[in-house]
Amino acid sequence: MKITAARAQRNLVLHLHGELDHHAAKEVMTEIDRHLDVALPVRTELDLGEVTFMDSSGIAVILRLYKRMQNLGGSMKVTRVPPQAMRVLQAANIGSVVTIEKGEEDR
Fold this sequence. Notes:
alpha/beta, 3 helices, globular
C-alpha cells in the first residue's frame, strides 16, 4: 500500500494505491496520522481511486480519519471509490457517517 499526499493551504488530499487489507491498515493509519500532524488540515479528501482491494480494515482506516478530522475541527470525504470498495462501505453503512463520492465509472 502506497500513500501520496497533496497539500494546498489547509486542504489535504491523500491518494491510496494498492490493497487496503488487515496487513496494510496499521501502516496506513500511521502514515495518515503523520500527514495530518504535519498539515493540520481543515478539509481532507481520502482518494481510493487506485485501491485494488479493500476489506473491513479499510472501514477502520476511514473511521479513524473521520475521528481525527473531528478532533481537528475539520471535515473529510472519501472520493473515487472503486466498485469493490464501495460494496464494503455500503455493507457497513459508512455513508451515513462519512461523505462518500463514487468512482468515475459509477457516475
